From TrEMBL:
CDD domains membership: PAP2_containing_1_like
Subcellular location as annotated: Membrane
Keywords in alphabetical order: Hydrolase, Membrane, Transmembrane, Transmembrane helix
Protein name as it appears in the record: Phosphatidic acid phosphatase type 2/haloperoxidase domain-containing protein
Annotated segments matching region Disordered: 322-348
Transmembrane regions listed in the UniProt entry: 75-95, 115-136, 148-166, 219-238, 245-265, 271-290
Organism in which the protein naturally occurs: Marchantia polymorpha subsp. ruderalis
């Protein structure tokens, strides 16, 4: 057996076919080898022409239970983030000083929310998940469904924890704080510090110290931003074919999130700085969470989850000893039984 593939493509084809016929089980895929197409993705790509499409990828079927088991720690983190965010909403925020000298800056009318609080998880998380499920019924890709749902939940909950942590720490008064503090319009201040002595509902007053950043905006850009990235990958917007309708469809979720942000300023629940910070926070968290599970939009495999699979317990040493040397692909990293192999990046 040769130790490297420095010959022509025909020589490589002959050598790989001889290797495939000599092995009964492929150590990476854990199934009988019937020919070159059954070799690992990274091995097959060494022989791919430049005209190969991104749909050549052959990945073994995975059940939803396998994915949950493989990502059990990730789902436990999701539960932990939910608990942490509940605690952050219970504790009292920092009461930033509001006195007679700066009360005029927070004297805007107290209005109801144009976008109710209860609706935010519905349009920012549940609606995208329904779209993911709809795509699943079309393509029957369990890995895509699992990673899409795990990614958007991670994005939404990390954004929620960051947002509420900053809210509690900053304690910035909302633009309508005056009417929360003095619902009857009669002002009352401490004789020495000139700090407000509120007479309103304590729960309403406590909520009045949570202006920065905007939770509606950060959640909207986290959930709808993730949906926008998901659509960008599936539609392959940077395929150099110039389809404007694809780009327009990708922008729609971001437009909806921006309109939610505008409503928060119009309702006098937030200052413009609050919605700007909330939008940037949610957008970048969504991007990083999407990239955790899917390639970049310009990648030839854009829209497809990263192709990793559970390993079978086949030691590398026995495979190498049968041929007298190690294959370049097989000696890249020691095998760990029960682990997983990232076929995209060739790492455990």
């Amino acid at each position: 057996m040769v130790n490297s593939f420095n010959g022509s493509k025909k020589d490589m084809q002959r050598e790989l076919n001889s290797m495939a016929s000599a092995e009964s089980v492929d150590p990476y895929w854990g199934r009988p080898v019937e020919g070159l197409d059954e070799q690992p993705l990274s091995l097959r790509e060494t022989m791919a022409d430049e005209t190969d499409t991104r749909n050549d990828e052959v990945i073994p079927d995975m059940k939803l239970g396998q994915l949950f088991k493989h990502h059990l720690k990730d789902w436990l983190v999701i539960v932990l983030l939910i608990i942490l965010d509940v605690v952050l909403n219970i504790i009292h925020p920092f009461n930033r000083y509001v006195g007679s000298m700066n009360i005029d800056s927070v004297r805007f009318p107290h209005k109801k929310n144009t976008v109710p609080v209860w609706s935010v998880p519905i349009y920012a998380v549940l609606l995208p998940i329904l779209i993911f499920i709809g795509y699943f019924f079309k393509r029957r890709d369990v890995r895509d469904l699992h990673h899409a749902i795990l990614g958007i939940l991670t994005a939404a909950l990390i954004t929620a924890v960051l947002t509420d942590s900053i809210k509690d720490g900053v304690g910035r008064p909302r633009p309508d704080f005056f009417w929360r503090c003095f619902p009857d319009g009669f002002e009352n201040y401490d004789m020495i510090t000139r700090e407000v002595i509120c007479s309103g509902d304590p729960a309403v007053i406590r909520e009045g110290y949570k202006s920065f950043p905007s939770g509606h905006t950060s959640w909207s850009f986290a959930g709808l931003g993730y949906l926008s990235f998901y659509l960008a990958g599936k539609l392959v917007i940077f395929d150099r074919r110039g389809f404007t309708w694809r780009l327009s469809l990708v922008v729609l979720p971001l437009l909806a999130a921006a309109l939610v942000a505008v409503s928060r300023v119009d309702d006098y629940w937030h200052h413009w700085q609050d919605v700007t910070a909330g939008g940037l926070l949610g957008f970048f968290v969504a991007y990083f969470c999407y990239k955790q599970h899917f390639p970049d939009f310009s990648d030839e495999k854009a829209g497809y989850p990263y192709p990793y699979i559970p390993l079978v317990s086949v030691p590398l040493a026995s495979h190498a000893s049968q041929h007298g040397s190690q294959h370049p692909i097989h000696n890249t990293r020691p095998r760990v039984n029960g682990g997983s192999y990232d076929l995209e990046n060739g790492r455990m």
